Amino acid sequence: MPHKIAALRVVPLDTHVRKSSQIGAQVILPDSMTLFTPQALTENDTHILRQALFDHGVLVIRGQLGIAPQILSEIAKVFDPQAKNVHSGGKMQVTDSKNILSQNNCSRIPRAPQVTVIGKGDVEGYEGIPHLELKHLDQSSFHEHPLSDDEIERGCTRPYRWHMDAPLYESLPGFATSIHAIEVPHVPDQQLQFPDGKSMPVAAGATLFFSGARNFELLSPEEQEFACNTTVQYAPRAYEWIRNCKASADGLTIESLGREKAFNELLEWNWEEVQAFPMVWKNHGNGKPHLQILGCCVYSLTTTDPVTGKSIVIDDIQEVRRICYSLQSKVYAPENIFAHRWEQGDLVMFHNRGLLHSISGQLSHYPDKRLMWQCSMASGALPEAYNITGA
């Protein structure tokens, strides 16, 4: 009897890793596939993979050293039928020093211009790029009250900035982001800090995630109703607007008002291209509600009374930040955070429209290099608002 070729399988990660986060699964490729090739998947395998991303948030495929960088841009089409052939951050890498997205000194791969090289350390002659001086960003450069030297010496770390991969101007955020680990630093584990004094062990340089669905579950019924009836307006050229701002100790919001750039100091912009999204997004795969807010970039809120239909605009920035933080801070606890421990060769795909993520880790005092590929393709589909009434 001929041997039956095993199909693609998805195995949720152990409970002690997932905890209450609702995040994390490993993808076991079909017997016939050593390196992940989206175009070679069967229709059934594609369906399984797509549903798994929407259900588990983060998917990990081990041992993928040797894949072509173009694979990362092809992944987007598995999850988003309206994926565009351009990185959500634009055709070219952001290099303007006035924009916080330029601070990691990353660069696009010439043979795969939608794929970005990120990491830490000097790299010569890589993928047709003469010289890279990659910088691993951490809380010391962005937080209002960063960790002390003593805390860093003791192995403490924090999230840098919680976000979705969303430009918030012109291009719409992609459904999925892919990251491939080429070289991983071998550094002792560190302790992720929480405002209430708790901590959790994480791999140095771990990528942190929390689920917008889990965040929504933690809201009171009144908060859920408010969130489902509210639209978030983001600032023009948001990442340039907050270039001089400093974040809270958990990386969820901007700590204080006054360092934002004046609108007339920003690169040319127009309101038609500045994005506003529902506060709660509907999961494309399972219909669940996800609280999705880029807290550091919020500008105003428009909320509608579900009974009268009357809308009000909240445009006091401090109040806007306070409201958003009061909702998102509920999820920032050890049991709700999934911290991916990178291994060389990992290919990670995550649900960019259902999670928020952040880099972590204090790596600057170690000589180890870190080299990764990242890709998040722009979408042609707007986020769908979740309707709490089910109508």
Automatic annotation (TrEMBL):
Keywords: Dioxygenase, Iron, Metal-binding, Oxidoreductase. Its cofactor is Fe(2+). Residues 19-375 form the TauD/TfdA-like domain. One of its GO terms (molecular function) is dioxygenase activity. Pfam families: TauD. Belongs to the TfdA dioxygenase family. It comes from the Eukaryota. The lineage of its organism: Eukaryota, Fungi, Dikarya, Ascomycota, Pezizomycotina. This is Putative dioxygenase. The keyword Iron applies.
